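Quick one: structure for this chain?
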Amino acid sequence: MRLTVVVIVTLLLQVSLSGQSQTVSLSGNNIPLKQVFDAIKRQTGYLFFYNVSHLENAKPVTVDIRNARLETALDQIFKDQPLTWELEGKTITIVKRPLQSSETLAPVPKPHETNLVKGIVTDFDNHPIADVTVLVIGTVRGTATDKNGVFSIEAVPRDILRVSSVSYISKEVKVDQNQLNIKLQLDVKPFEMLLVGGNLNAIKRKADATSVTILDSKTLERIPENTLDQIFRGWVPGTNSFDVGDEPEGFPTLSIRG
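Got it. Here's what it folds into:
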C-alpha cells in the first residue's frame, strides 16, 4: 500500500512539470523586452531578475521562435542587446554585457597626472614679454616668462591658464596642446595726469592738487619766448629763473614756488 502511494505522487509531479515546459514560442515585431520576459514566464514558470534602469537602453525585439529550447530562445532575444542573461535554477538574471576588446574605452587622465606644457607670450607685434604670470586656474601651480617670453608649466588637457602682466589685458587660455603661442594686448586706459614736484616722491594726482597750470601744444604756439626758462617764468605763476655761471651754453635753474 505504501509503494502505491509513492507511484501516484511521482506521476502527479511529472504532470505538473509538463505544464511548465522549458520550450518557448514567441513571434512579433518590436516587442518591448519586458513583455518578452512576461511571455517566457507564463510559458516556462521561470522568474526574471533585473534592474529596471538597465532596460532603458534595450531595443525592442523582433522574433519568430517556434518551440525552441529556453537557452536558444534567450540567445536569440539578447543577440543585439547591451544586456545578456545568466541562468541559475529557475531564475534568469539580466546583466550588462561586458565590453569587447574593441569597445574598451580610452583611459581618462587622473587628476594628478600632468604634462609639461611650454609656451611663449608676445605682444601683437611679436615682441616677447618678460615676467608674465602664468597660473593654472583652480590650482597653486604657477610660473613666469623669462626675458624671451618663454614659460613651462605642469598642466593636463582641458586645464585653463590665466596669463597676466602689468600694462596688458589678462587672458585665459585652454590647454589643448603642449606648445602654446599666446598674444597679450596692451591695456590702454584714459591717461590720468600726474604732477611731479621737486621731490620725486611727491607724486600726486591732478585732482588732489590745489593749483594746476597746463602748457599744451596750442598754448606753446602762441608764446613768443624762445627758451624753456623764459616760458616757465612768464607763464607759470611762482616761477623764477636763475642763470648759473657765465657760460652761454649753461643751463638755468628754475625755482617753482620755492
